[in-house]
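Case study.
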Amino acid sequence: EEQQPDSGTEQALTKVKVVLDWTPNTNHTGLYVARDKGFFAEHGLDVEIIQPGQDGADKMVASGAAEFGVSYQESITMARIADVPLVSVAAVIQHNTSGFASPVAKGIDSPEKFEGKTYGGWGAPVEEAVIASLMQEKGADVGKVNMLSIGDTDFFTAVQRDIDFAWIYYAWTGIEAELRGEKLNMIYLTDYSDKLDYYTPVLATSEKMIADKPEIVKAFVAGASEGYEYAIEHPDDAAEVLIKAEPDLNADLVRASQKWLADKYQDDAPRWGEQKLEVWTNYADWMYEHGLLEGKLEAEKAFTNDFLPDKE
Amino acid sequence: MDGNAVDIPVLTVRNVRKSFGKGAAKKDVIADLSLTVGEGEFVSIVGPSGSGKTTLFQMIGGLTLPDEGDILIGGKRINGQRGNVSYMPQQASLLPWRTVAGNVELALQIAGASRKEAAELTSEWLGKIGLASYGDAYPGVLSGGMQQRVSFLRALLSPQRLMLLDEPFGALDALTRLSMQRWLLSIWEANRRSVLLVTHSIEEALLLSDRIIVLSQSPAVVLDEFVVPYGRPRSDKLWTDPEFNRYKERVYNVLQESLSKGTGDSHV
Amino acid sequence: MDGNAVDIPVLTVRNVRKSFGKGAAKKDVIADLSLTVGEGEFVSIVGPSGSGKTTLFQMIGGLTLPDEGDILIGGKRINGQRGNVSYMPQQASLLPWRTVAGNVELALQIAGASRKEAAELTSEWLGKIGLASYGDAYPGVLSGGMQQRVSFLRALLSPQRLMLLDEPFGALDALTRLSMQRWLLSIWEANRRSVLLVTHSIEEALLLSDRIIVLSQSPAVVLDEFVVPYGRPRSDKLWTDPEFNRYKERVYNVLQESLSKGTGDSHV
Amino acid sequence: MGNNRIPWRKIWPPAAVLAALLAAWQIAVSAFGTAEYILPSPLSIAEEGINVGPRLLEHTLATVGLMLPGFAGGAAAGFLLAALIHFIPGARSGLYPLLVLSQNVPVIALGPLLTLWLGYGVLPKLILIWLVCFFPVSVALLSGLNDTDPKLRNYMEMIGTSRWTMFWRLELPHAIAHLFSGLKIAASYSVLTAVVAEWIGSEKGLGHFMMLSSSGFQTARVFAAVFLIVILSLAMFGLVVLAERICVRWKPDRKGE
Amino acid sequence: MGNNRIPWRKIWPPAAVLAALLAAWQIAVSAFGTAEYILPSPLSIAEEGINVGPRLLEHTLATVGLMLPGFAGGAAAGFLLAALIHFIPGARSGLYPLLVLSQNVPVIALGPLLTLWLGYGVLPKLILIWLVCFFPVSVALLSGLNDTDPKLRNYMEMIGTSRWTMFWRLELPHAIAHLFSGLKIAASYSVLTAVVAEWIGSEKGLGHFMMLSSSGFQTARVFAAVFLIVILSLAMFGLVVLAERICVRWKPDRKGE
Ligand SMILES: Nc1ncnc2c1ncn2[C@@H]1O[C@H](COP(=O)(O)OP(=O)(O)OP(=O)(O)O)[C@@H](O)[C@H]1O
Ligand SMILES: Nc1ncnc2c1ncn2[C@@H]1O[C@H](COP(=O)(O)OP(=O)(O)OP(=O)(O)O)[C@@H](O)[C@H]1O
Ligand SMILES: [Mg+2]
Ligand SMILES: [Mg+2]
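After joint prediction, the assembly is written out as follows.
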């Protein structure tokens, strides 16, 4: 909406909304680029990016209050089990970049060192299960980890007090630590378990959208894909687009994060956004085994690659 | 008992009974009370404290229903019906957030006057009772006496057929009280509105009224009706008349007698 | 002017001035007032409404400071100092959330009595004034007259050397008023406490007091001091004495005269 | 008075209104075919509530355990502060704005600080509840203390009542109606505040339960918790009303209501 | 009275207290060497605030634009509701619990519903603010309306005052002190509520700014916004106090305060 592309089709654009999963950050850069560089407009869409309430995007997308949303695999899995008809249409980042971080001084460089330490999280069962899985690999006992709920307090505050390690996205919190010159030990989930290499975040829509307006879904995913590809190729420029759109963001952090993330969006996949069935089944099975799901996921229905643009 | 039997009296209270509370706590306050106030008649009620005079007024005003009996105004039964009387209570009851003039105007407007009429009448009369300069003041800065005078004015100017005055001059100093009585007398004798006055002062009752009704201790009944033998217009130096003390003593003795017969709980 | 010149008077008010407001709105309420109350003396103040009697009491009570002059109790200057008097105000001022007995007890406790003393004294005296059965009732259910009687009791039982009574019987009916006056007289004549009484009733002043101080309209000065010629103990039938009306008329005339000389704004 | 009669007369009208609301809700949800995960019907909420009954009870108890000391502490703090401000000359104008200020430091700024100073125990949560509850109590009490009948004050001053006695015997009883209206507000807020406080980090309690249920798309559970919150709130409110009735016996019966 | 003198006498004590607090804060931060990202010093907050001044101003205006109609609408709704409940016999007992209930539906349950029904516009946010602001106004006004001087009521009834006149001329003026104490509470809450409402999805406003700053670890900016929130709140509070002074001219001057 800021720069209407002169090349764009002149007939009326279709208005659609995309709801973010959290405050704007480098996970969303592709969407901002697609909007502000006119990629969406080229596909006949006028996209409004909406920042979410406390409750995220999922329900709004499922109910049709917004057409698209930013979500993540775990959430869509749970949603589908609860009969909420969400479908993932693209993986924003190919591999899980989250992990357990702690100041190096604490010496937590391997999951077995969690023993006797205090973990600060949200109090969700999935956290304990993930920590347990990692520790299992090293034959350590999750029962010896002290679990504390820290709610919304940020990582840096938490480790000042009571907390030894917490779960972060490296692209954001980890990069911030680099910028501050604070050394972190990072234990990535993917390093210890393939099953935990789930997609986070993803772009989602509802089954109804797919059934009723597949062309709009196609247009949206195509635009987003161009946006993220632009971000992959021009991280510096893409960062500026995001900063311009959301001037209140921490600009230094955005630039550094963008640079770190540029080659993580697509990574080893044949094209940006590609999702694999085994990633969906693996994680759902893992969740089910750990009692985190009340049913079995029909993984084929949870995602689709059908709307991704064909690689030329 | 009733001087104006041919005309319909302005107020008729007929065999009224009233008690408060229920069961064991039940307390008869008024036991079979009848009285009338004729057109243009000035009637006073004298009775001991707690004999139910305020309660009687509340029934006439329609605030409480008598347990038995009727209250008629102009021959129409008005048990429990409001707005038929103008009223001056024991305590001034001026709205503290309205100016003196505003208080008077409000009463007139409630009684049906237009804003303009009310304002004119009020400023005219505030002057007449010597409170012109207090028209824009709030009641809070007035002394108790002045407040009561405003309260009186408010009742006087309202157009209803019956005025109820509940111990209206009790808070005035002796001097102002006398001059107010005199003044009320002169106004009243020129207009002859129907008034029912509760007073604790036998002198005041003698000076102002045509008839004095003496109530007993609660449960109240009419002990005596005393027709005041003075003609009209009356002299305001009535109290220097040697007969006056005799009349006063007579009413006093009626009251005194009833008290010694009563339960005596609330009196020495 | 002062009958007890040798003894130190309980209360001395010396050349007191008081005005309210500032600048153009300044209003002189008391202009050079002096008076004394001797040990065991009963002094009444009579004056028109708004003449500053309540203001004077507030200065004696220490609530406001005089602009000039001194107030002495027992020879000690107490300008602005509180707790030296017991007090009965114009309006009953009972705490609505305390029972009748509780109200009286509180006053005694504030004056220094122990809880037990206060309770005993209170229940004893509530009986004496015929309110025994109301001890546990809340003031809200009492008639205005009863409330005022409780308020009087509260002042009477407090131990301070000077009692200030501000129009104490104004809300009582004629009968109770007379019986209360009589009763007060009998108590007082047995105990001789020092009393300063504001009253609007010249009769009351004559009946009760040793001296009557007549105040002018505000700004108030002492117009006259009238030594009441009746001895003690006094008959309560004083008002039937033919001389009584003469004394009454004399005080009345002093007041009347001053009013016609005054600005006359607040009087007809 | 008839102490036995009042409760029924008082309870059925709101109960009727509530029942009507619930019925309307049930019908509306069926009629419009609203999705379960957005707005479940009262019946399915009840069903789900019963299913997870024992766990819900546990969480409820945890919340109550946070709310009660929170409310009590907040009310006490509000009372003390108001009394203090009332007693110290000039404190009113100096401190009143600080009271207002205290209501305006958002949790997002305060949470981390409290955590830093007090750790992750129960204390920072209690402080958050105190911070919310003390305010209406203080404000209401202060305005009540400032509103004493001048006639009564005049009498008490004349007989030389000490500042302290004045407060206990005159000002406070007079302000009691105001105090209770402040307490009612604080009580109404206390439950929800406890729930919000649980969001800043807690392993149990209704707030925690709602958070997890919501992220698990179990909206019926969220609403079951909402029902419990509402019930707790009404209970707290009722307790305050009861306390008021016990404290304020002297008010004459009103007609009408 | 001296209308010109009062403001100064009223303003300096809280200003002094605030200044003292800020000074203590500055010194404490320097003394303990607290990390900037946890608790920045007042000076660095001010500096950062000036740096992002124009944007901060824009956000502030957006919040004010949400807060003012929110407060006004909430207060009006509170007033109307209280009046309604007061007028309709039996409504008090029937509806009062619903008022309490309305304060206890957490945003987590209500937010999605409002968004679903009303979209992402300004309306759901306004409704949240109304919901918070109407409550203290209603409760305070109701308790005021119920507390009229019986002597005055008796007089008005005796002369046959209509229900309506009774309300406007007696009950409402009497309740005005209560009303304003409710308005003060509502005003104190209105700013923060607007900020919280912005958290349920907004592209501008101080709430949005705080959210982004907080997730970007820019604590000084968060606190700059907190300062603005506090200032706005005090301004709102001051406006209500001013309005009270204008409306309640008849109260006699108090000694002391
Ligand atoms: N609402 C009520 N409930 C219970 N008792 C009442 C009520 N109103 C009045 N009483 C009782 O009724 C009696 C008469 O009271 P009322 O006020 O009518 O007396 P009164 O003659 O006006 O007294 P006074 O001359 O002192 O004004 C008193 O004993 C009082 O306690
Ligand atoms: N705080 C005040 N501010 C301004 N004027 C006042 C104040 N207090 C009293 N006055 C004025 O002082 C005058 C005397 O009032 P005061 O109440 O002392 O009279 P009073 O003699 O007690 O009258 P009453 O006999 O009617 O009770 C009145 O004109 C009153 O308006
Ligand atoms: Mg009466
Ligand atoms: Mg006086």
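Observations recorded in class. Confidence is low (pLDDT under 50) at residues 1-9 of chain A. Residues B 20-21, 29, 47, 49-55, 90, 218; C 141, 143-145, 173 surround adenosine-5'-triphosphate (ligand 1) (CB under 6 Å). We will return to this complex in the next lecture.
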